[in-house]
Amino acid sequence: MDTPNLLASLFFFFLLSLFSGHQQQVVEGSSGLGPKMLFVFGDSYADTGNNRKALASSWKLPYGITFPGKPAGRFSDGRVLTDYLAGYLRIKTPIPYRWRKQLGGRVKYGMNFAYGGTGVFDTLVPEPNMSTQIDFLQQLLNDSVYSKRALKTSVALVSLAGNDYSNYLATNASAAGFPAFIGSVVNQLKVNLKRIHNTGVRKIAVSALQPLGCLPRSTALLAFEQCNGTENSLVDLHNQLLVQAVNELNKETNSSSFLVLDLYNAFWNVFNQKEARPASPPTFENPLEPCCVGVSAAFSCGSVDENGVKKYTVCLNPRSKFFWDTVHPTEEGWRAVYSTPVVQNSLKQLW
What we know:
Layout: H1 3-19, E1 37-41, H2 81-89, E2 95-96, E3 110-112, H3 130-142, H4 148-151, E4 154-158, H5 163-171, H6 178-198, E5 203-207, H7 216-219, H8 229-252, E6 258-261, H9 263-271, E7 292-294, E8 312-314, H10 331-339, H11 341-347
Parallel strand pairs: 1-3, 1-4, 2-3, 4-5, 5-6
Antiparallel strand pairs: 7-8
Helix pairs in contact: 6-8, 9-10
């Protein structure tokens, strides 16, 4: 084999190693016939490699050190929510949209359109918002990559982890309009969910907002010992409106196509070490404290200085921590969330 062909082959197998994030030790899927494809929309809680390497910390060490052993575009030390849901459905993790041409043989399992840092509206991250992500799926339908008939054997995961709200706070001098903005976010999310359903996707799981006031970025000033109640009260409003929107969609479509994946209570169950990880007792050290942190407020996980010197520290055992960095769970954290009864009961509705 000549050198160019050899290099091309090596690159192809490298991509396969990054995106075959599947299942050996993730989860046991349900038995019987079920969905054959998974389509994913949203942000970093679901992104498995769409963000551009020049922009995202997820392509830098120490991200990916648990799985696949190197940075692969996931915002964690290892697997994320998408991987666990794919495992539950007993299919391979769908490839990121960005790599669809290089890994075309994997499109039969669905596709991941999620981009870290994005929301239903534009954010400070120059990546496609959720409306544009749905446009990508529609274009694949137009190009006959998928058919509406095929999509009837698929489910969708829609992740909204709070980037719209972070962007609002960063660009507005006053928080007085926050409740109204929450309403506009949920209204746009409802439009997006209906668009996904109209493509032919059979079941759509949308994540409730996690307790934002418990993320390490919010608890750092409190020594990672206490959540921010004000932030969590705004999360409560979002989640109430989301449940209302999902109920309305099911009524409008005379179906049970839409369901809420209750990450809010799942996170709390893990924080309180209740009902999480039934196969083994919870072992998280302070669940609000992250594994990977910058050495100062000026740095974050994955930061290096101009000489390449690390400006972050990593805990000895990521499995002992719920949070990986100041926003995202570890692989073990996601496993604990996935294993809670509140999430397991929701997932049963996908079959």
